[in-house]
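Figure 2 data, in text form.
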Amino acid sequence: MDIVIIEDEDLAANSLEKMLLKMEYPITIKKRLESVEQSIEWFKNNTCDLILSDIHLGDGESFEIFDSLKIKTPIIFTTAFDQYAIQSFQFFAIDYLLKPYDTVRLENAIKKHINFNKNTAVDFKQLDKYILELKDSNEKKEEQKRFLVSIGENFRSIESNQIAYFMAENKSLFIFTISGESYLYADTISSLEHKLSKDQFFKINRKYIISHLAIKKIAKYSHNRLKIELQPQINARDLIFVSSNRITAFKDWLNR
């Protein structure tokens, strides 16, 4: 079974590939793609048996790939956001994995592909039930309060209330503290999002998860966008915006 992985975070893609290759099925990772643009170009001249695709990519949503090329290869979508579940089934989706998922859930999705029948109707009631169960499970998980970072040959544990924000940069993740220090942290921003206090932290875009304590200024910007000024500031010339699809949730978070 030739599988293509579409995922823009290396750690997430590596983890997914390891889970797939440990399964008892004859699986080959034919290609790993990182963006909408790269995927469209590759699928113009290539194919595979199954696609596992994150929805949020650096240059857009993966729906753009399948809408553009009308790909009929079965797809298993993965994402941290449950609101895309029903939308994903307008394409040739056979399952929808809400991050973070485990090996058992992934293997069940692979089994579904193996036994897949094009005439099988999607059970939307069961899908909604599963999503609600996952959301409830995620909400009950204990929040991470300390973060272990390495400093040369030494280690330091940073309390969550000392953190101003997390920033993803060049496929690495950094912690910036309120006191102005920065540390490399071994995780991905999409995975980390589920481990943090929802009262204290908010993911404003694909690059930043911020604490309410780090917000120095919020300003309206052109095209109904919100510009954020953080403290400590990394580079005064860098403009930081709340993603347009996160603005309403961001305002609700600030108003809790």
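Caption note: The chain has two domains: 2-140, 146-254.
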